[in-house]
């Protein structure tokens, strides 16, 4: 198949690079604009000046940042389809090497941007009606899902979840080289995604001095795995409890990096211990491991910044801003939440009554 028209009202086509050499196919389709999603030198193609051209220089690898290009390509395609040339509506070809992954990803992103009723899966299914080989790689599918969850924003770079995703990529690159990341993103110093939430909020305090260490927006949730049944000669198999986020098998609270951890996390070490930030306490309360660690419940978390449950008290309280979970894009855990901020819009840790304004973190 040279090029495939995406079903719908838009004159939008998907193809591979060999489509560019089939001048008759391009002419028959009336192509006016071309989006190339690959690294290539196009100077050898004849009549190239006939087309408006946008080139996105990326490889077809899962960790390639294609998400950051979605608004650029989406707005360009939208304008091309509306304006075209000589007062005629445009017809756009989006291509990569095979017309399978990169070009399909950009086309899905356009559909999500223009038609909010679409999901990632429904947009992909639509394209597959005429191009069955359409199959973005796993990393691109995750980026599309994140794009949809963010609401297909016009300013992607300003989105906290995108910034957090970029930072996770930095961490992974550093770990691949056997090093700690060059910089640490402290979540309580960053803009958090807000929302009206109701329900309970968890507050973690040092068991020794009662210093507040973290609250719900900065917790990394994970779903413990139920242990396998244990055989007993007297009683037979013993069934384990179903997995829940608060299963007793977990001995750790996992957190996003917070500013009170700066003295430890900025040492450039791959792992180490965490002390209570209260200078009169300095109790050993947890540990960090950029390369990740496995919780006692069996879930692997990376990077892992944890407080030991036996060293902290977990206080549950009900407030106007309830169980909002910090966004966990990039943290390799079993569940994903969304960021939150307090009623006043602050991104700092909430303090218990009587401790506000005392520089708790």
UniProtKB/TrEMBL annotation:
Residues of the active site: 96 (phosphocysteine intermediate)
Top-rank taxon: Eukaryota
Annotated keywords: Hydrolase, Protein phosphatase
Domain spans labelled Tyrosine specific protein phosphatases: 64-132
SMART domains for the chain: DSPc (SM00195)
Keyword Hydrolase: yes
Region feature (Disordered): 336-361
Record-linked InterPro entries: Dual-sp_phosphatase_cat-dom, DUSP12, Prot-tyrosine_phosphatase-like, Tyr_Pase_dom, TYR_PHOSPHATASE_DUAL_dom
Similarity comment: Belongs to the protein-tyrosine phosphatase family. Non-receptor class dual specificity subfamily.
Full protein name: protein-tyrosine-phosphatase
Gene source species: Lachnellula suecica
């Amino acid at each position: 198949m040279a090029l495939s028209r995406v079903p719908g009202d838009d004159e939008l086509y998907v193809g591979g690079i060999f489509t560019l050499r089939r001048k008759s196919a391009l002419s028959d389709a009336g192509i006016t604009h071309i989006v190339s999603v690959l690294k290539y030198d196009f100077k050898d193609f004849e009549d190239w000046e006939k087309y408006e051209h946008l080139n996105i220089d990326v490889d077809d690898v899962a960790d390639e940042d294609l998400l950051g290009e979605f608004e650029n390509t989406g707005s360009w395609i939208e304008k091309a389809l509306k304006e075209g040339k000589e007062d005629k509506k445009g017809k756009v070809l989006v291509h990569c090497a095979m017309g399978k992954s990169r070009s399909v990803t950009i086309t899905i992103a356009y559909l999500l941007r223009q038609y909010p009723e679409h999901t990632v899966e429904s947009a992909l299914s639509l394209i597959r009606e005429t191009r069955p080989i359409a199959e973005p790689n796993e990393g691109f599918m995750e980026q599309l899902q994140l794009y949809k969850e963010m609401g297909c924003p016009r300013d992607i770079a300003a989105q906290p979840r995108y910034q957090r995703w970029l930072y996770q990529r930095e961490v992974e690159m550093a770990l691949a080289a056997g090093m700690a990341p060059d910089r640490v993103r402290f979540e309580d110093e960053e803009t958090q995604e807000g929302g009206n939430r109701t329900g309970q909020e968890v507050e973690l305090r040092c068991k020794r001095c009662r210093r507040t260490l973290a609250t719900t927006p900065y917790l990394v949730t994970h779903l413990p795995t139920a242990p396998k049944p244990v055989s007993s000669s007297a009683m037979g198999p013993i069934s384990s409890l179903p997995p829940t986020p608060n299963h007793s098998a977990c001995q750790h609270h996992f957190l996003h990096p917070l500013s009170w951890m700066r003295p430890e996390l900025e040492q450039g070490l791959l792992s180490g211990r965490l002390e209570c930030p209260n200078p009169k306490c300095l109790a050993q309360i947890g540990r960090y491991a950029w390369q990740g660690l496995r919780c006692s419940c069996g879930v692997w978390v990376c990077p892992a910044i944890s407080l030991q449950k036996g060293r902290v008290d977990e206080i549950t309280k009900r407030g106007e801003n309830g169980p909002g979970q910090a966004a966990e894009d990039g943290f390799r855990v079993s569940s994903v939440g969304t960021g939150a901020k307090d009623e006043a819009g602050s991104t700092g840790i909430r303090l218990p009554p009587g401790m506000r304004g005392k520089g708790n973190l």
